Amino acid sequence: MISWLQGEKIDAWQASNKKGILISCGGIGYEIQLISRDLIKTNNSQNITLWVHQIFREDGNTLFGFQEKEERNLFRKIIEINGIGPQIAMSLLEQYRLKDLLYAIKNADIKKLTKASGVGKRIAERLSVELKGKLNEFNEVLDPGVSEGPLISPYDAKIDNFQELKDILRSLNYEEEEINKALKQVIDGLEQYTISENPARNKLNQETFDSCLKEALVLLSQDLSSKGT
Questions:
Q1: Are 119 and 151 within 8 A, CB to CB?
Q2: Residue pLDDT tens, the chain, 229 long
Q3: How many angstroms separate the CA atoms of 166 and 183, rounded?
Q4: Distance between terminal CA atoms of the chain?
Q5: Superfamily classification of domain 69-138
Q6: Which of 55, 81, 97, 206 has its CA 20 to 30 A from that of 106?
Q7: Rounded to an integer, what distance in angstroms lies between the CA atom of residue 186 and that of residue 165?
Q8: Does the global pTM surpass 0.85?
Q9: Fold of 4-66
C-alpha cells in the first residue's frame, strides 16, 4: 500500500472532472488525483510531498493525494462508509476545508454537506450518523472557536441565489478555487447592491445576477489567458 510519496512534478492532467499530477519517484511516474486547491499549490513547485491513499480495483489502481495528513485520514474515514466512494469523498474535501467539513459532519449540517457535488440528502445523513463518535483523532483540528467556513465568504449564507451562480460556473468546467476567487471579487465590488447583515437572506435581482455572472466569466477568462491556456 502506497501511503506517502515525495518526488518531482512531471506534468498535470485532467480527465473529465478528475484532475491531478504526475510525479517521478525513484524513476517511476505516479499519476495522483488531487483536489483543486492542492493542485493549484503545485503550480510553482517542482518537488512535491503528498500523503496518499491507494485504491485497488480490477481495472487498475488509483492514487489519491493530499498535502495534509489529516485530510487523507478523513478521506479514509469517509470511504469506509458503505455506499460512499472516493469521488464523493474528494467532492466533499473540494467544497470545504478540513475544519469546516468536520464541523458539518459532527453537527449533522445536512444543508451544508449537500452543497458538495454528488452529495444528496441520504449520503449527507449517513455521513453524520456513521461518523458520529469516530472523529476523535481530529480533536486537535476541531479546537474551540469559529470554524474556517466555506472556501469563499459569507455570501453562501447571505445571498439566496448565490449557490446558483456557482453551479452555473461549475457546469462550464471552471475549477472550484477559480470560481470562488472570481465571485468574491465580483460581489465585493458591487456598488449597486448592499448585502444586509439582517438574518433574513437577500436575493440578487435578475439584472444584478446576470451582471455578476458576466463579470465572473470575464475574470475567469482573463485568469485562463494569463496561464496561457
A1: no
A2: 899 999 999 999 999 889 999 999 989 999 999 998 899 888 878 899 999 999 998 777 899 999 999 999 999 999 999 989 999 999 999 988 898 899 889 888 898 899 899 999 999 999 999 998 899 899 888 764 444 444 444 566 567 777 788 878 877 877 767 887 888 888 877 755 555 555 456 778 888 888 889 998 998 888 666 655 4
A3: 8
A4: 36
A5: 5' to 3' exonuclease, C-terminal subdomain (1.10.150.20)
A6: 55
A7: 11
A8: no
A9: OB fold (Dihydrolipoamide Acetyltransferase, E2P) (2.40.50)
